Amino acid sequence: MKIRGFENLHVDASWRNISFLKITTDEGLVGWSEYNESYGSRGLSAVIAALGETLVGADPRPVERISAMLYAQTRQAPGGMNAQAIAAIENALLDIKAKALGVPVYELFGGPVRDRFRLYWSHCGTYLVNHADAIGEQPLRSLDDVEALGARVRERGFTALKCNMYRFDGSEPYVYMPGFARSAGDRPELNLSRETVRALRNQISAFQEGSGGRVDILVDLNFNFRTDGYMALARALDDLGLYWIEIDNYDPEGLAMIRRSVETPIASCESLYGRRQFRPFLERYSMDAAIIDVPWNGFSESLKIAAMCDAWEVNIAPHNFYGHLSTLMSAHLCATVPNFRIMEIDIDDVPWKDDLVTVPPRIENGELILPTGPGWGAEVNEDAVRAHPPK
């Protein structure tokens, strides 16, 4: 079997594009993976194409060797888009290899430990602030709306939700994301204010009231503060009984200091690449839960990261705010590792999201059911992708 070619496909999903890599072979087998270049990775498709050129004519099945060679070729510029490109290629090659053997990807790595995964409804309310029309839901405009949303999460059978920070103290509701410079007037100093603390406590309380205290609340602080701000805000939330506070911080010692100063569990590491970047965070006991991004790291590397975490008695959760194929890829990771904690999934999304794959993820009572088909368990529906071209 030989690799015949690489193709990138992109689909409009309102506030971002969803992208797929298609690898074809001379025997008719097709491998798929999902990646994303809408959040800080513009030009990723070109990097994938450049690395892919070196693989045309090669056997796609020795995936570990191919990944190692691609890492070596990019060793002088590790991480970043090179890592994401290698991951996209690796994930599509694993799809081919598993299909060639007629098994799901998780069977290549010892079979499933579990076949159901507890989910949390991610970005709960975030997209409803600015993109409610694209989703087909009512916009989020007040704390009363937050309370109603908490009730909807509970009624849909979910037992956990994660929210970002959104504010209702301006002329219009807005998502608070200074760490990503998403709003006019965002400043790089990332200082914490009393008003921000008050707004977030009110938001969490509204979710707790609406869900009747029967839904675990996770809070994602992203890159919005520096170490002192994270510490002060985490302490201010410590009495609310949160499932975790999620912090993006590239300083393992600073994150460890935050963790030691609060009772609420700390989750982190979704923006790291590979075992080498995770290692200092584990050595310093920086987090209670390690978040691993399968589209960024590749499935095989994600398993190695999870094994490292297991040695430090740390459970893992996939970073999964993408499309359905990414959800299926992440489900294979959750199935394969012993140290699973909880799985992320976006529920609020464009209405054609299910059309993009032949077998959408199956959810029952707030749990994802493990796919059983060969490869990742679904194919990309190219007709549906082409029906929604990027704007």
Number of strands: 15
Biggest sheet, spatial arrangement of strands: 5-8-9-10-11-12
Element-level helix/strand string: EEEHHHEHHHEEEHEHEHEHEHHEHEEEH
Alpha-carbon Rg, integer? 20 Å
Mind summarizing the main beta sheet? 6 strands, parallel
Counting H and I runs of at least 4 residues, what is the number of helices?
14
**Overall pLDDT metric:** 97
**What shape does the CA trace take?**
globular
Percentage of residues in strands: 15-25%
Low-confidence stretches: none
* Beginning-to-end CA distance, first to last residue: 37 Å
What portion of residues is helical? 25-40%
Which structural class do you get from the secondary structure elements? alpha/beta
Structure notes:
The structure is a single chain. With 391 residues, the protein is an alpha/beta fold. Helices cover 38% and strands 18% of the residues. It contains 14 helices and 15 strands. A 6-stranded parallel β-sheet has the order 5-8-9-10-11-12. Strands 13-4-15-14 form a 4-stranded mixed β-sheet, with helices on one face. Helix 6 runs parallel beside helix 7. The protein is globular and about 60 Å long. It starts with a strand and ends in a 5-residue tail after the last helix. The mean pLDDT is 97.
